[in-house]
Amino acid sequence: MSRIGKLPIPVPEKVTVTSKKNVITTKGPKGEMSLTVPSGIKVKIGDEIVLSRKGETKQLSMLHGTTRANLANNIKGVSEGHSKILIVHGKGYQAEVNGRILEMQLGFSHKVLFEIPGGLEIVIKPGQNTFTLTVNGIDKHLVGAFSGELYKIKKVEPYNLIGFRYSDQHVKRKAVKTIT
Predict the structure, then answer these.
(1) How would CATH label the architecture of 82-166?
(2) I need a surface site. Which of 36, 81, 144, 170 has the fewest CB within 10 A?
(3) What is the arrangement of strands in the sheet containing 9-10, beginning at the earlier edge strand?
(4) What is the per-residue pLDDT for 2?
């Protein structure tokens, strides 16, 4: 049995979970999400949600844990929301949100423009030679994918920590290169 798949998912008071055929819909204060459950996975909805599988094949075992994790992410997303924090460090780096466009000045000869996907919200906190981007949303996959796209623009370099880094990312610092 899957170690993750057999764990029950607690349902918060403000969240309602409904099942129609093989689609599970979660509604909460932040929004609504749905998840298609693969055939072979049974879902029992009550005060907490329990997933079980009908067979013991390798494919069903993998889908059991994945489906449980995705359903737990949906429930957390509609009740609390998901967020990723990116710290951007560099001299003269700036960012602002104009409508659904994120405009950043990152030391290139031009501004870097990103269209913010629907369902996401960007919060910018400026600082001294740095700013913090917080990506908020109810869909964990969308929050992670958009944060990854931003991170790829200018990954943090290990000498002066210039560039994008996640707030929980540990960067091993290197000594500054010297001429001997």
Answers:
(1) Alpha-Beta Complex (3.90)
(2) 170
(3) 9-10, 48-53, 41-44
(4) 66
Q: Which residues pair with 101 in a beta bridge?
A: 98, 115
Domain spans of the chain, in order of start: 9-79, 82-166
- Global pTM exceeds 0.85: yes
Tell me the C-alpha distance between 155 and 140, whole Å. Answer: 22
* Tokens 């917080």 found at: 134
Helices within the chain (DSSP H only): 58-79, 140-153
- Strands 32-36 and 23-27 turn out to be antiparallel
Residue 103 corresponds to which amino acid?
E
Looking at domain 9-79, its CATH superfamily turns out to be Ribosomal protein L6 (3.90.930.12)
**Residue 31 near residue 142, CB atoms below 8 Å:** no
Does this chain's domain 9-79 share its CATH topology with 82-166? yes
The rounded distance, in Å, linking the Cα atoms of 46 and 48 is 5
- Taking the chain (180 residues) in consecutive chunks of 10 residues, what is each chunk's mean pLDDT? 82 93 94 94 92 89 92 96 96 93 93 94 93 96 96 92 93 85
Chain position carrying tokens 């943090």:
156
